[in-house]
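User: Fold both of these, please.

Assistant: Here is the first one.
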Amino acid sequence: MGGEIENPPYEMVASGKTKHRETVYVRFDDNVTTYQQLLDAFWRMHDPSDAGGSFVDRGFQYSSAIYYRNAEQYELAKGAIAALEASKKYANSIATDLVEASEFYAAEDYHQDYYLKSPIRYKYYRYRSGRDQHLEPLWANDDTSYQIANPSD
């Protein structure tokens, strides 16, 4: 999402040359899963305090961002960022950008569901990246829903 060219190939996005970020497009029914629940899950999947990328994946294209589609999502995301920052859970400030959603471009089919198509490689990547070793102890026994109502600008 984001970026400077229409429908870029995955290799170009991964190179960082297009100014897109690798993103996940989530369609959800607010009666089943709330936006707040998605935000709660989002924090537990990466390091939102790393402005330079995510674990071994380095560069803007791997940096943390929340893309919102309306004012309600904006306010909830802003409140979640403020609450997580105030919690001091991370030693560094929260580096997650809050950006209005633009056109989403899906990666090519070969890149979809990589964890299913290449489970051994994916497990190796997860382990070698340090992701699980960082996230599991950080979030163990923490089911907090980080939110501040009406966060100040």
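And the second sequence with its predicted structure:
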Amino acid sequence: MRIEAKIKGPWGQGIWPAFWTIGANFPVVGWPACGEIDLMEAKGRSYPVDGSPDQSNIIGSAVHFGTQWPDNRYIVGNFYTSNENTFQNYFHSITLIFQNDKLEFYVDNETNPHLSIDPTLYPLNQYNYPFNREFYLIINV
């Protein structure tokens, strides 16, 4: 399955726009055992931090898994654009290729995923792989 959206993020400190999913079995098993897939999170980075430059050109993709809170584990991959082509200035396509035992994350139809997940990756290989089931899709700011 392919999930894709064209997204342009808002400007502002503390705004955390996200395009993500949560396992449909969340009410039964809870988080993080249900699994969470973050296709895109911007985390309000459109401001300089501790002398660092503006970070509006960064988004993160991640998967969350584990047993019960606070046993939350995750794997994250960041994607960087040029400073002129930020996620707040232009629309970017965010894509997840969702296959059995494999997740691949792309931005702007790149040929290689910036994050690829399968059940053999550490520390995911220490847990039940929660991503071969139905998920709810969520877009929020």
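The two ends are 25 Å apart (CA to CA).
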